[in-house]
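Notes taken during the Thursday session

The instructor put the following on the board and asked us to keep it in front of us for the whole hour. The protein is Bifunctional acetate--CoA ligase family protein/GNAT family N-acetyltransferase. We were told not to look anything up and to reason only from what is written here. First, the residues (899 in total):
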Amino acid sequence: MSQRSIRNLFTPKSIAVIGASNSPARAGSVVMKNLMGSGFDGPIMPVNPKATAVMGVLAYPNIESLPIKPDLAIVCTRGERVPTIIEKLAQFGCKTAIVIASGMNQSIDDAPSLMAQMLENAKRYGMRILGPNSLGLMLPNLKLNATLAHTGAITGKIAFVSQSAAVCTTVLDWANNKGIGFSAFISLGDASDIDFDELLDYLGRDSRTNAIMLYVDSISDKLRFLSAARAASRHKPILVIKSGRSQEGSLAAKQHTGGQNGNDAVYEAAFRRAGMLRVTDLVELFAALESLAHLNPLHGERLSILSNGGGPAVLAVDELMIKGGKLAQLSDDSISKLNAVLPSTWSKHNPVDIIGDAAPKRYCDALKIMMDSEDLDAVLILHSPSALGDGNAIADAIIDTVKQHPRRHRVNILTNWSGEDSAYQARKRFSQAGIPTYRTPEGAVRAFMHMVEFRRNQKLLQEVPQSFASTADKETAHRVLQQALADGKHVLETHDARAILKAYGLKTIDTWFAKDADEAIALAEQHGYPVALKIQSPDILHKSDVHGVMLNLNNADEVRQAADAITSRVKSANPSARIEGMIVQRMALTAGAQELRVAMLNDPVFGPAIMLGEGGSEWEPTRDAAVALPPLNLALARYMVIQALKTGKVHDRHLPNGLDLWAICRMLTQISNLIIDCPEIDRLDLNPVLASGENITLLDVNIRLTDSVKDNASRLAILPYPKQLEEYATLRNGLKVMLRPILPEDEPKHLAFDNSLSDEDRYKRYFGVRSAMTHEEMAVLTQIDYAREMAFIASAKDDNGEEITLGAVRASIDPDNTEAEFAMAVRGSHQGIGIGKLLLEKLIRYFKDAGTPVLTGFTMFENRNMANLAKNLGFTVTFDMEERLIHMQLDLNSQTSQQ
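Then, after some discussion, the predicted structure tokens were revealed:
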């Protein structure tokens, strides 16, 4: 169990309210009223030195006089009193508190802020804090409303976590109107201690929660947030609304929570990489909430539309196509069945227009046929007000039809009853029946596409990447970079960076530096015309912005004239710029090719981010570039290129030698490797990049270096493959094996390894009989998060020279790195030769280096060999006779642990 567990926050059996009050205008009064009114069945203990009772409940004059230790305390006092109160609560034995007070993060005269003092007192005793500036917490299943909200929440399966109290109350009001319930409703406030990452970890494992929604102003710990989000989104959908899409909005968000002011496009990329789905505003949020509350998991994306009018159906189709959706194609069999129950004037295709006089029976007859069909995965039912059809009666009939249909869990149903007064009651009936309903056809389609996008994102993130044999020469790159920094050089242009880029398989065009026109002419004469001439200045990032580029120079006179003209123009446009000389570059063959731009910026929140767009000097990432976080492999790079094409950041102009998808993916992966391996690089701009079929050439390169070099754990948002952990070992029979961390590319070989296990070995490994692994299960095993889990494999060449997996050991770490739990398997044909010992020893060394205190594991009674191996390596082995399990535990801090 983690020492930083927040379980008490979600399972309190007793509550103290510090600052409870009978005065209606005080926070302590509202909190008491909500607690008393919600029906919480544990003791509620108000603390108020001046009151005998609060709302009829006996009050206590101070914390020390409480009859029991509260599981949860709600602190409703002024901010200046909070640090002392938290210390007294912690000393008394309370482990969790919600702090309502705002303005505690302000410092006066360089003294620690009230929030800092509060946290210091809490951490000294292992106490956890939600807030300050928190609206509070609702747990409807416990009948707990510990908030300042104006109303309570209905019990449901959605968890909502927000940094904004105002958004909390708005969402709550809307959800109650729609009859949508929550498993947890949490206001983070300033998130001084408990933050998104821990809540995602808890809610991702919570059986009462089917989906999670977040309102985010800012993220404080990128690595923990993305690790928690990636883990949770594998099991349930996470939707997020992020404020600060504009520069001004981003500044306002920073002022609201005090977080870092990051680039919105990078936030978007981070959410996508974690498998979350972003919505842009509260309207979309409400629509998504409706979908999450009522839709079944999607089995497919094909949408059919049933309507009593053509216009609304066309609007729905337009929105579906714009959003990249799939309109179901009705089979001849389905059309024949619909012909039998619909007027001859019906549309004869999808959308199924059943004419404006449609009554309940016509709607239901058509709906039954459509739900019976294998042609579709979801049906959107539209109704426009009509004097010839009672909307409420039709809604009631549809509700009964859906409830009774045997495929109601396989085919999703969405509804749109257009209008206001005439449609309100019908929409309310659908909500009460658990069928999602929307005010407009477009809104219904957008809500459906949220679920489709989530499904697509999950599938794309689980793709098996093609193997990519990197031949990077890191030593050369580091030598050049370190020499540049030693020389005080912080800007590298194409001619300076060629050796670095070549070391990573990136092609540049021949480029030379000349300090004046005479040297430029000499270089051109030596290497041949035509050439391009460009200004060289550390103060100018985009040379074309100051007209510092001249192309297609064919002789010495043209080079000299160009040098004079460029120098004159640059001095006029930017008098303070330092001009070091000229760059002479062989002219590239651009006919039939397309110009791209690739860059890397250092985001203040998420660190390095890679951007892909079209060539040109103007660049606004939010508008002009697809953005992705490193590390990239070929599958993730492909995902990035697809996003660029889909959103119009890059246009495939279908030139004779234009875009080759895999060539661009290889380039992006190489650039990702360069960024990961070389923390000296602070910014990178490749503009233009010439894409000519398989041939990718970097024409102009600008690399900015930093002296403040950080390690990847603090620099990157997602930890890369730890290549430094690769090693070779020789087994007792002389076989040489490689021990290394697992990679996503290993999925096919790992599946073959898993399938090679005998029934007995599979029984021991999985604690029971199980079928072959699916792709989705294999993706979880091979696409691991190196920040919180590790899997080592042992591999060797078979008789055909093919690499095969001989054994694997893996362990997951709890989010606070207090314990890791391992499991292991070895291929039957290679058991008894020391593979298991090598793997487990490597795992032990890894977690000792990571500072993990305890390594633990379980195996079945039948697997005595595993227990004996663990015992020989220093594990304490105990037997659970009731469960027939062997428990193995190793204290990694012990000096006697065997290596």
